[in-house]
């Protein structure tokens, strides 16, 4: 690596960081516009954010086949991996902003969310492209700090404030822990560049496992908090319950996708074959996360908490391929693992946001998040009921939905790596999950409506969001072929 | 004729969607659409039966369309997933069984007055799932339809059942959900093992059809099972997985507790579908995958099958004696009868395999008939409790008479379908396990005891004066009863109508397992 500073021109920045520039620059612009607009015109502000996200996504897609680009002294890389993850992040952000707009009419969330979500997503996108510890950490903090505020956004709700505080404290400790772990990597390599760290771990420090262990353990503990891997999940149900529903969906989907990208970059890219020492640990974390998440959900009666626990369980599925990556030497298996994670993230994004969208409407109208609030939803609003059924069946992993194929792909990865037991536990815990997902289904279709017999009127926007999510869920379940094919062609790492 | 199976599966779904599009209050039209939506595929399955080539033992009426390909699914192998149908001598009778049972259930469901639209939608959905399960010739297609039946029957039990229906439906869901998970593990393992073996074999010996991809096609797997011998240890593991799945799916002791609850809490139409068709899936899986493709595994566990079968036979029969509710009695009696099938499969005899298919069909018809008549009397008396009934033959001579036919069919009266089924099963059983089979014959005595005793207390004996005034069978109720009785007698008197179809395939399977 040359030591001389090499001058980065604006056109270089645009070519490499175009999407990030659009998202973060757009966020600043929208912040200003929001400030300057009169109060009664501000309802247009979130739509600007939607446009911003769409533009960024189009830019990424248009450059999808350009190959690997490395910029700025190899701090920032645009490769297939980062493009795929950025698309997940933007898809999630897009849906969440729409959901927030749809929910806003009644609850009157402050419009700050539109640019805060953009800042958070900008941070998330930086994570996916960063191959430098500083850049990765800055992205992570941008994401975290924005989401701390977002969780507490509903100022009039005590639970939101409590959730915000909880998330702030737990999240900052986690960030600090990650930073501590990263500092060891810097100490080992004398550089913050992941490539140089990888080289140092191969050569100079190949036999010093103690320092690597400390570093790995600290980073793992930190990211485990951020994506609520058991036993670092305790905050999740409280925060999810307290946060405004669109923010909950954001935490569940976008924030997790970004942190998983972080894990892949650091663990796979920097640690390289040192990661093999820890595959069993990842496997067990995945197992206890699946078990605790799914069994924890059994005891819940609040749908938001059920979804919170279920999202813990889903993280268990998501981190399972890490074990395969750690154990296998075979590049094709590693690629398969990466494409299975990405596929599942897309499925997870649409089905989870869809479920939260229906939940937000129902709980608004019925004034409760409890399962009983869903009683007789089919009579109150057949459209929402049917869409919710699709999301729940997908979350449960029934065929013809994306959820089945997502799990199936992960199962294949485990199978391929010879980890049959992990695959079996995956499906066994999914069978446990039937119980609570079908419990909600039962409420929707079977139970008679309680209380008044009023219909739930859902606006066109909300109907569109859940329709889009359902379309995505079914598309990925009915014809996953083309999309999997794209994922298979991706050149993952630079 | 090539697309007949695809049409059979798709038509109920289309009818279901049509039902959804109807206004909720027009019950008459909804009923008519649902009935026609079940009748047409039933007629198609009849025509498929008539055109069935009995000399061919492979899957007939193949229909395959590519669904999706997954690159790099296993060690760079591509996974081909197809929407694929095909029937052989084992599945053809079961497809017809679904046709008969579903059509008659639609008639019975004319009595449903609550939430008619969604009732018929889920009924048609369940019908589609059942057709799909038995007609599938691709593992993924099969599994998809299996899960569809799960969703549909869960909601059917949950909405139109008795007081404890939520409990029963949840139990149903958990047991069957667990079974399908285990089954999926077995199915994927099977496909994987054959893919790896076929790949290895094709590079050493000349084997035609050995794929360089991972296939889920059932006919492909059946072909490979003939050509390639999987090591015994692997077969044993896979067989054990399938066995576990089947034990749960088919409610064998000790995994049986969900079935009586389900039957007790479901309404009559749902019971006819579940008892008549859905409960045949487990043993069908056993025959289709475990027996046909894992002969060494079968040989290894044959004794276990017989013992587990015997336990279910005796346990089911003994508990049935103590049952106070007609629906529980039928449930336990079907557990007992399915145990007999397991015993016969364990015998690894050709006649046992043939008897197994006979028993699946016969018990499907008889169970539906019994549930229908028991339900018909309960519509009038308002109770299923045996001790509250009495003297029904006075006021309901037709229904009681048909009920008696069904009961006698279960007992195994010659001339009815139950006899020829049990006869073949026992012939197979005695050839391999004389002692166990001798013990199993006790179940016939028990069956005669509990069924006839229950009949005696229900239809004959003193009239229970607390029962309301009743009218005998209405015109529309004659249809299911007459059709089922005719079929039961037809199979009993001319077993050839079924046997000719089954024979070739049963022979092929028996040759594979060395029976």
Automatic annotation (TrEMBL), chain A:
The chain crosses the membrane at residues 20-37, 44-64, 84-102, 109-128, 134-153, 165-189, 209-235, 247-272, 278-299, 306-325, 337-359, 389-414, 420-438, 459-478. GO terms for molecular function: NADH dehydrogenase (quinone) (non-electrogenic) activity; NADH dehydrogenase (ubiquinone) activity; quinone binding. InterPro entries: NADH-Q_OxRdtase_suN/2 (IPR010096), ND/Mrp_TM (IPR001750), Ndh2_N (IPR045693). Residues 3-101 form the NAD(P)H-quinone oxidoreductase subunit 2 N-terminal domain. One of its GO terms (biological process) is ATP synthesis coupled electron transport. Keywords: Cell membrane, Membrane, NAD, NADP, Oxidoreductase, Plastoquinone, Quinone, Translocase, Transmembrane, Transmembrane helix, Transport. It is a multi-pass membrane protein. It is found in: Cell membrane; Membrane. Residues 132-429 form the NADH:quinone oxidoreductase/Mrp antiporter transmembrane domain. Its EC number is 7.1.1.-. It is an enzyme of class 7 (translocase). One of its GO terms (cellular component) is plasma membrane. It catalyses: a quinone + NADH + 5 H(+)(in) = a quinol + NAD(+) + 4 H(+)(out). NDH-1 shuttles electrons from NADH, via FMN and iron-sulfur (Fe-S) centers, to quinones in the respiratory chain. The immediate electron acceptor for the enzyme in this species is believed to be a menaquinone. Couples the redox reaction to proton translocation (for every two electrons transferred, four hydrogen ions are translocated across the cytoplasmic membrane), and thus conserves the redox energy in a proton gradient. NDH-1 is composed of 14 different subunits. Subunits NuoA, H, J, K, L, M, N constitute the membrane sector of the complex. Belongs to the complex I subunit 2 family. This is NADH-quinone oxidoreductase subunit N. It comes from Sulfoacidibacillus ferrooxidans.
From TrEMBL, chain B:
The gene is ndhD1. Its main location: membrane. Residues 136-441 form the NADH:quinone oxidoreductase/Mrp antiporter transmembrane domain. Belongs to the complex I subunit 4 family. One of its GO terms (molecular function) is ubiquinone binding. The chain crosses the membrane at residues 6-22, 29-52, 90-107, 119-136, 173-195, 237-259, 301-322, 329-347, 353-375, 396-420, 426-454, 475-494. The lineage of its organism: Bacteria, Bacillati, Bacillota, Bacilli, Bacillales. GO terms for cellular component: plasma membrane. This is NAD(P)H-quinone oxidoreductase chain 4 1.
């Amino acid at each position: 690596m040359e030591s001389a500073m090499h001058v980065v021109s604006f056109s270089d920045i645009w070519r490499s960081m175009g999407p990030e520039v659009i998202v973060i620059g757009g966020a600043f612009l929208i912040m200003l516009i929001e400030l300057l607009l009169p109060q009664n015109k501000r309802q247009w502000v979130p739509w600007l954010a939607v446009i911003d996200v769409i533009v960024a996504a189009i830019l990424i897609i248009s450059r999808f086949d350009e190959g690997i680009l490395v910029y700025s002294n190899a701090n920032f890389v645009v490769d297939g991996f980062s493009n795929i993850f950025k698309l997940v992040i933007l898809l999630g952000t897009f849906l969440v902003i729409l959901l927030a707009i749809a929910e806003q009419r009644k609850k009157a969330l402050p419009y700050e969310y539109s640019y805060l979500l953009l800042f958070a997503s900008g941070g998330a996108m930086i994570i996916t492209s960063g191959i430098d510890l500083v850049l990765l950490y800055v992205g992570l903090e941008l994401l975290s700090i924005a989401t701390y505020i977002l969780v507490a956004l509903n100022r009039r709700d005590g639970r939101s404030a409590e959730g915000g505080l909880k998330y702030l404290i737990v999240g900052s400790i986690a960030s600090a822990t990650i930073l501590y772990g990263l500092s060891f990597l810097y100490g080992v390599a004398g550089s913050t560049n992941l490539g140089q760290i990888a080289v140092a771990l191969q050569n100079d420090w190949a036999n010093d496992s103690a320092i690597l262990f400390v570093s790995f353990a600290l980073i793992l503990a930190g990211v485990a908090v951020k994506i609520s891997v058991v036993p670092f999940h305790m905050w999740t149900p409280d925060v999810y319950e307290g946060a405004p529903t669109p923010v909950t969906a954001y935490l569940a989907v976008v924030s997790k996708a970004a942190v998983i990208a972080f894990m892949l970059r650091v663990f796979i890219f920097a640690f390289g074959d040192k990661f093999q020492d820890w595959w069993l640990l990842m496997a067990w974390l995945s197992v206890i996360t699946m078990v605790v998440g799914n069994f924890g959900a059994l005891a819940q009666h609040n749908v938001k908490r059920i979804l919170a626990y279920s999202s813990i369980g889903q993280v268990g599925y998501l981190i399972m391929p890490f074990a395969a990556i750690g154990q296998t030497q075979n590049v094709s298996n590693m690629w398969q693992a990466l494409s299975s994670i990405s596929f599942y993230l897309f499925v997870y994004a649409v089905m989870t946001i869809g479920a939260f969208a229906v939940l937000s409407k129902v709980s608004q109208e019925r004034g409760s998040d409890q399962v009983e609030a869903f009683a007789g939803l089919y009579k109150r609003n057949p459209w929402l009921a049917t869409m919710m059924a699709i999301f729940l069946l997908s979350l449960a992993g029934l065929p013809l939905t994306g959820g089945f194929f997502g799990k199936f792909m992960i199962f294949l990865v485990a199978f391929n790596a010879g980890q049959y037991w992990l695959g079996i536990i995956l499906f066994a815990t999914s069978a446990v999950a039937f119980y609570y997902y079908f419990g909600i289904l039962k409420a929707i279709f079977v139970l008679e409506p309680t209380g008044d017999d009023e219909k739930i009127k859902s606006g066109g926007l909300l109907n569109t969001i859940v329709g889009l999510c359902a379309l995505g869920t079914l598309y990925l379940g009915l014809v996953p072929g083309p999309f999997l094919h794209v994922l298979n062609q991706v050149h993952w790492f630079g | 004729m090539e697309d007949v199976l695809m049409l059979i599966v798709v038509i109920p779904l289309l009818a279901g969607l049509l039902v959804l599009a109807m206004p909720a209050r027009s019950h008459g039209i909804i009923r008519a659409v649902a009935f026609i939506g079940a009748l047409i595929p039933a007629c198609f399955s009849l025509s498929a039966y008539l055109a069935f080539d009995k000399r061919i033992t492979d899957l007939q009426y193949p229909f395959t369309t590519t669904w999706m390909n997954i690159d790099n699914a296993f060690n760079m192998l591509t996974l081909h997933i197809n929407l694929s149908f095909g029937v052989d001598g084992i599945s053809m009778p079961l497809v017809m069984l679904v046709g008969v049972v579903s059509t008659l259930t639609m008639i019975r469901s004319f009595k449903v007055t609550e939430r008619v639209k969604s009732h018929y939608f889920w009924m048609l959905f369940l019908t589609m799932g059942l057709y799909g399960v038995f007609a599938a010739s691709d593992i993924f297609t099969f599994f998809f339809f299996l899960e569809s039946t799960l969703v549909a029957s869960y909601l059917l039990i949950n909405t139109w059942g008795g007081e404890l229906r939520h409990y029963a439906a949840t139990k149903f869901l958990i047991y069957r959900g667990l079974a399908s998970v285990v089954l999926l593990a077995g199915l994927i393992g099977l496909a994987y093992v054959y893919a790896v073996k076929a790949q290895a074999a094709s590079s050493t010996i000349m084997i035609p059809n050995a794929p360089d991809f991972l296939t889920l096609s059932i006919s492909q797997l059946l072909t490979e099972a003939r050509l390639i011998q999987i090591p015994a240890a692997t077969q044993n593991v896979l067989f054990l997985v399938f066995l576990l799945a089947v034990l749960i799916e088919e409610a064998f002791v000790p995994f049986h507790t969900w079935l009586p609850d389900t039957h007790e809490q479901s309404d009559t139409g749902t019971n006819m579908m579940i008892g008549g068709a859905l409960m045949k899936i487990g043993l069908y899986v056993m025959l289709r995958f475990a027996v046909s493709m894992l002969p060494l595994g079968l040989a290894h566990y044959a004794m276990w099958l017989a013992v587990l079968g015997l336990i279910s036979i005796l346990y089911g029969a003994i508990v049935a004696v103590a049952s106070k509710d007609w629906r529980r009695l039928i449930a336990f009696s079907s557990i007992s009868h399915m145990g007999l099938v397991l015993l016969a499969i364990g015998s690894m005899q050709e006649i046992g395999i043939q008897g197994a298919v006979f028993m699946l069909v016969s018990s499907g018809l008889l169970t539906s008939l019994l549930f229908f008549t028991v339900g018909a009397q309960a519509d009038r008396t308002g109770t299923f409790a045996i001790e509250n009934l009495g003297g029904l033959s006075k006021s309901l001579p037709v229904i009681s008479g048909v009920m008696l036919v069904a009961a006698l069919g279960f007992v195994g009266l010659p001339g009815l379908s139950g006899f020829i089924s049990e006869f073949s099963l026992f012939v197979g059983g005695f050839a391999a396990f004389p002692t166990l089979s001798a013990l199993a014959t006790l179940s016939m005595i028990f069956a005669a005891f509990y069924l006839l005793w229950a009949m005696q207390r229900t239809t004959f004996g003193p009239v229970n004066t607390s029962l309301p005034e009743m009218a005998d069978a209405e015109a529309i109720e004659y249809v299911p009863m007459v059709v089922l009785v005719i079929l039961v007698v037809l199979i009993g008197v001319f077993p050839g109508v079924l046997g000719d179809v089954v024979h070739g395939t049963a022979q092929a399977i028996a040759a594979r397992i060395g029976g």
